[in-house]
Every structure is written in C-alpha cells, then in structure tokens.
Amino acid sequence: MDLQIAAALVPLLGWAVHGSVLAHRLASARRDPLTGLHTRAGWTARAEHLVRRHPTAAVLLVDLDHFKNLNDTHGHATGDAALVATADRLRTWCGRKGAAGRLGGEEFVAVVQDLAAADLDALIAALHRPLHYAGRSLPMAASVGVCRLAELPVPLLTDALAAADAAMYAAKGRGRRGSRLSR
Fold first, then answer.
1. What is the rounded CA–CA span in Å between residue 158 and residue 6?
2. Tens of pLDDT along 7-34?
3. pLDDT band at 5 (very low <50, low <70, confident <90, very high)
4. Please, are residues 74 and 139 in contact by the beta-carbon 8 Å criterion?
5. What DSSP letter does each residue of 6-62 carry, written as one string?
6. Element spanning 130, H or E
7. CB–CB of 56/113 below 8 Å?
C-alpha cells in the first residue's frame, strides 16, 4: 500500500472509531439502564414520530401504586425487580405499534398507534399480576392515565402528557388499581 494512502486512511479510521463511540454513548443515554426502556428523551423522540403519523394514537402514564412500601418492606432489589417486570409488561403490550419509556422512579409512559386495537384491559391485567421474586408472590398494582390524541383540540404530545397525568391522578384518587381516560 502506498504510504500516502495509508497516511490519509489513519485519520479517517480514527474519526470512524470516534463516531462509533459517540453513537454508542448517545444510544445508551436514551435507554434506562435498569429496565432497558427508553428514557424521557428517547421516548419523546419516538412518541413525537408516532403522534405525527397516527391520529388515533394515545398516550399513557403509568405509576406503580404503593411502590415505596414494596421497597421499604422487601428491599430495593425487590423494588428493582418490580420495575423490570413493569417495563417488560408495558413493552410487551406496546409491541411494534407503540413505544414505552421510564420517566424515572416508578413512573412509566407509553404511546400506541391505536388504543382500540391495543386492549387497555389487557395492560391493566398485566400490570396487576403478582410479582414472583425470591420465592414470594408479591401483589402489584398501578394507576394508569390515558389520553387519546384525537380528543385534544391540537394533538400535541405535551398536552397529551398533561391530560394523561391528570387522568392518572384521578385514577389514584379513586382508590388506585385502575385506569382513567382523560376528558
């Protein structure tokens, strides 16, 4: 190989490696290390895309009920197992027609292309299945707030999140363990 060609390729190789490392770091920053779900930034980018393309999309906020009690009673490893189980259940429910994310703590978020096709009752049932961990079966519960974008005057993700949040707190106010659609 000609020495001039080799001298020209070395910097290009360095930039390629550098670009690959940066891309990997960016991808890692968009995934929650515990659950593997999108972080807020990663989920927002995916959700914005789905909202623009699907007028029948719906946004959900999920908050685990009594999570602090679970952590305090059974330990943080059990709490982590509950977060991972919730993430798996939400990811499975969203499938290829949606995206799930973890906002932080015990709060999760999802967007699906069409709520009618997604079966909200199946999600509620999945979120309320007991957690089998360390030889014990522990009860799990979640409050879910839902906003269909078609119900908003302008279908913006920020407005859908606010409406889903209000619906989630209304579900919590009704004694938890359920869902509530925004109105």
1. 51
2. 666 666 665 554 554 444 444 456 899 9
3. confident
4. no
5. HHHHHHHHHHHHHHHHHHHHHHHHTB-TTT--B-HHHHHHHHHHHHHH-TT-EEEEE
6. none
7. yes
The CA dihedral of 178, 161, 123, 177, to the nearest 10 degrees, is -20
DSSP 59-95: EEEEEETTHHHHHHHH-HHHHHHHHHHHHHHHHHHHG
- Mean pLDDT, rounded, for 118-129: 94
Q: Distance between CA 43 and CA 94 in Å, rounded? A: 13
* pLDDT at site 4: 76
DSSP category for residue 175: T
Residue written as tokens 């009618």?
116
From 48, 106, 107, 151, active-site residue: 106
pLDDT for the residue numbered 2: 77
Annotated catalytic, 107? no
Q: In terms of Cα–Cα distance, which of 168, 163, 157 is closest to 111?
A: 157
Q: Report how far Cα 156 is from the mean position of its chain's Cα atoms.
A: 18
